[in-house]
């Protein structure tokens, strides 16, 4: 039973990764967008300017996702390993966003290379929540590099981590908390208290995956002409100064690996934040954004291989299914 369970999980993870690599995010009807609309509808009933209301809102939604994931996983298990693998593949595909991240980052680089700032500004909201209207080419480039770095963890490594560690319920709950953090976890006046729980849950869920991502960034740095030592040094030296306990880790590692300097004044729709600098090089140029996308894709591939391998190993370190 255990062998078939882990074999199904490994096969489902691999299939989900392949589906994301081939298809990317669906343009319409994405389950994450459906969840977001449901969360927004619930917010109209649960909103109050308090942490307790936000914790209730977040808890109800995450518990619902966990129940749905557990029910789907058990339904697949009753039908056999193949059905369970299909359920795992669907959940993994829904949670992953690495392929779309790479495509958007590459398109941003194309716009900036062509000097098409209007198109770059229109595209930026697909990567992050900064105010594109106030950004010049340098600001757009830095925003894109930092977003590619952070979302390499959030959109790819972390979902794979939770899919490998906890299966369907865990990966769906992770995608839910990450979506809620994007929706209500900011520090605007409306969400300073209501979004507190979502932001803290997201910090906890991403704590280990962010550090795994930074390690993989160091491993993959030579593929883009970077230095593993510089990535690790920037992580150790600069990450703790970032306001996010997780984004700072990944962005610092990317800065070191690419030999650029990230951070500085960052204009969001709700406020201007003065971020610390990460890395010791010059500000990133468009060719550094291209390298960041290549580095992100390399990290995504290695993370997928590691996650699938982890899922195929039994509790005692032996392969769970010799025929997998």
UniProtKB/TrEMBL annotation:
GO terms for cellular component: plasma membrane. Converts cobyric acid to cobinamide by the addition of aminopropanol on the F carboxylic group. NCBIfam families: PRK01209.1-4 (NF002276). It comes from the Bacteria. Keywords: Cell membrane, Cobalamin biosynthesis, Membrane, Transmembrane, Transmembrane helix. Pathway: Cofactor biosynthesis; adenosylcobalamin biosynthesis. GO terms for biological process: cobalamin biosynthetic process. PANTHER family: COBALAMIN BIOSYNTHESIS PROTEIN CBIB. Signal peptide: none annotated. It is found in: Cell membrane. This is Cobalamin biosynthesis protein CobD. The keyword Cytoplasm does not apply. One of its GO terms (molecular function) is ABC-type vitamin B12 transporter activity. Belongs to the CobD/CbiB family. InterPro entries: Cobalamin_biosynth_CobD/CbiB. The keyword ATP-binding does not apply. It is a multi-pass membrane protein. Its main location: membrane.
């Amino acid at each position: 039973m255990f062998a078939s369970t882990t074999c199904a999980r490994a096969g489902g993870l691999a299939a989900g990764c392949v589906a994301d690599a081939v298809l990317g995010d669906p343009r319409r009807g994405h389950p994450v967008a459906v969840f977001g609309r449901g969360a927004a509808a619930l917010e109209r009933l649960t909103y109050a300017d308090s942490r307790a209301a936000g914790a209730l809102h977040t808890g109800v939604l995450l518990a619902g996702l966990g129940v749905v994931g557990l029910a789907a996983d058990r339904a697949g298990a009753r039908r056999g390993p193949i059905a369970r693998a299909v359920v795992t593949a669907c959940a993994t595909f829904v949670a992953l966003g690495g392929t779309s991240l790479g495509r958007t980052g590459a398109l941003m680089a194309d716009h900036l290379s062509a000097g098409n700032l209007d198109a770059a500004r229109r595209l930026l909201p697909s990567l992050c929540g900064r105010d594109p209207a106030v950004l010049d080419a340098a600001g757009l480039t830095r925003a894109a590099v930092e977003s590619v770095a952070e979302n390499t963890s959030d959109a790819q490594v972390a979902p794979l981590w939770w899919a490998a560690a906890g299966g369907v319920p865990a990966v769906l709950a992770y995608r839910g908390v990450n979506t809620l953090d994007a929706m209500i976890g900011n520090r605007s006046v409306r969400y300073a208290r209501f979004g507190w729980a979502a932001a803290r849950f997201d910090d906890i869920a991403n704590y280990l995956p962010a550090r795994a991502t930074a390690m993989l960034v160091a491993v993959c740095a030579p593929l883009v002409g970077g230095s593993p030592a510089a990535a690790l040094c920037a992580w150790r030296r600069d990450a703790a100064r970032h306001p996010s306990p997780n984004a700072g880790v990944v962005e610092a590692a990317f800065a070191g690996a690419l030999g650029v300097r990230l951070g500085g004044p960052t204009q969001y729709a709700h406020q201007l934040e003065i971020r610390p600098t990460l890395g010791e090089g010059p500000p990133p140029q468009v060719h550094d954004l291209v390298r960041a996308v290549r580095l992100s894709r390399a990290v995504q591939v290695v993370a997928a291989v590691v996650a699938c391998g982890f899922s195929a190993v039994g509790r005692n370190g032996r392969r769970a299914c010799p025929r997998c």
